[in-house]
């Protein structure tokens, strides 16, 4: 990995590559084809008042005609006035829940006639197909790839789930007010890391509703060939190109990643951390919903007879006391210290570790913070602190 000095990612690229058309009514054919190829398909659905990522066999389960309104501490499903399938940003869940699950059994041991037999848990039986991955979440997956695959220790759980995963990306046409992926160089168009990338077009009527499709490699090309995609006309290409351009103008927030990195490095003793401590509940929601946060803890369990033992890995959060517990107690007792640690790692020291920001600008931590703490506002406050 190569640390960068500027703190900025290269800007998100324009959608590129030959565009072909998939009529929206044929989305079910894509699902069937992926299922036939042995993939466990997961995609977005409107569930429990939000967008959830669920196992998906039928395109009817996709959130046709739904959108999501988001603001600090607020996320609400709303009806759209068309039948767009991907006319929303995202809910609390990210693809991390599939690639880096919240609970993973690492191994189990069972007493047999000849002593304990130890079994390591392997990859899921079926490879994953991820349907509807946004550009910000694509970038989040590449950020987690660096943590789990590209370092000296490859994580077997992540590697087993990531290997062979088929990715269908969707350009974002409807950013939420909490989104700032464009300023973080992570969106709104999918520019790498996909097998197929869709741009949803003209969802007003069934006759016009279609997807511009870009192919990301041999696997995507093979699937596309079996879907009988039709060539795009000039109007299709122009319309597809315009979606990301409009989306950029709809984002409710911005952040300068280089400035965020610099201000966090220089404001470790700022009085602003006390201000955050007055508001932060240290609930850890921001770390749970963040698609790049990867910290875990382990738990060992055994049955009462002592015949079966298991080791589980669980998501952890730098907001818990236990996270920084050393001899004598937690290192970061105060809420302000824990928030400072989280935001400093995410936006500043992540650069030294992984060569880029740990934030992709998805806005989840803003919408799902119960008291509406806004990572972009905290950076803005630190930057203006002491400026007359
Ligand atoms: S910033 Fe918000 S979501 Fe994160 S720990 Fe504090 S209160 Fe919870
Ligand atoms: S820090 Fe917040 S905005 Fe950035 S990637 Fe994580 S959840 Fe998204």
Key features?
388 residues, alpha+beta, eight-stranded mixed sheet, four-stranded antiparallel sheet, 30% helix, 23% strand, disordered N terminus, binds iron/sulfur cluster
- Average of the residue pLDDT scores: 93
Bound molecules: iron/sulfur cluster
Q: From the alpha-carbon coordinates, what is the Rg to the nearest angstrom?
A: 22 Å
Low-confidence stretches: 1-7
Structural class: alpha+beta
**How would a crystallographer describe the biggest sheet?**
8 strands, mixed
What's the helical proportion of residues?
25-40%
| Order of strands across the main sheet | 3-2-8-9-10-11-1-12
Shape: globular
In DSSP terms, counting alpha (H) and pi (I) runs of 4 or more, how many helices? 12
N/C terminus separation: 40 Å
Order of helices and strands: EHEEEEHEEEHHEEEHEHHHHEEEEHHH
User: Could you tell me the strand content as a percent range?
Assistant: 15-25%
Number of strands: 16
């Amino acid at each position: 990995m190569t640390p960068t000095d500027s703190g900025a990612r290269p800007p998100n690229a324009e959608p590129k590559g030959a565009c072909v058309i998939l009529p929206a009514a044929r989305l079910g054919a894509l699902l069937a084809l992926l299922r036939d190829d042995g993939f466990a398909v997961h995609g977005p659905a409107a569930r429990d008042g939000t967008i959830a990522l669920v196992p998906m066999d039928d395109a009817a389960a996709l959130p046709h005609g739904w959108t999501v309104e988001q603001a600090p501490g607020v996320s609400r499903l709303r009806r759209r006035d068309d039948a767009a399938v991907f006319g929303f940003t995202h809910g609390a869940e990210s693809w991390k829940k599939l690639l880096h699950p919240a609970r993973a059994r690492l191994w189990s041991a069972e007493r047999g006639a000849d002593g304990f037999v130890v079994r390591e848990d392997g990859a899921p039986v079926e490879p994953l197909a991820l349907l509807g991955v946004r550009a910000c979440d694509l970038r989040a997956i590449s950020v987690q790839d660096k943590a789990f695959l590209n370092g000296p220790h490859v994580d077997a759980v992540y590697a087993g789930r990531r290997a062979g995963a088929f990715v269908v990306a969707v350009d974002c046409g409807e950013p939420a007010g909490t989104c700032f992926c464009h300023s973080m160089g992570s969106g709104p168009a999918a520019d790498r890391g996909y097998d197929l990338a869709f741009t949803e077009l003209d969802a007003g009527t069934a006759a016009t509703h279609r997807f511009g499709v870009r192919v990301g490699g041999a696997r995507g090309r093979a699937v596309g060939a079996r879907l009988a995609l039709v060539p795009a006309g000039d109007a299709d290409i122009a319309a597809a190109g315009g979606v990301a351009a409009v989306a950029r103008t709809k984002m409710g927030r911005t952040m300068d990643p280089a400035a965020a990195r610099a201000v966090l490095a220089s404001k470790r003793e700022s009085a602003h951390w006390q201000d955050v401590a007055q508001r932060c509940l240290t609930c850890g929601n921001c770390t749970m919903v963040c698609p790049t946060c990867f910290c875990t803890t382990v738990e060992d369990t055994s049955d009462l007879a002592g015949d079966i033992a298991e080791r589980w890995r669980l998501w952890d959060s730098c907001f818990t006391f236990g996270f920084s517990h050393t001899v004598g107690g937690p290192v970061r007792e105060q809420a302000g210290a824990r928030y400072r640690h989280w935001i400093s790692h995410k936006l500043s020291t992540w650069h030294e570790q992984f060569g880029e920001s740990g934030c992709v600008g998805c806005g989840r931590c803003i919408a799902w913070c119960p008291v509406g703490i806004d990572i972009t506002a905290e950076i803005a406050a630190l930057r203006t602190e002491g400026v007359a």
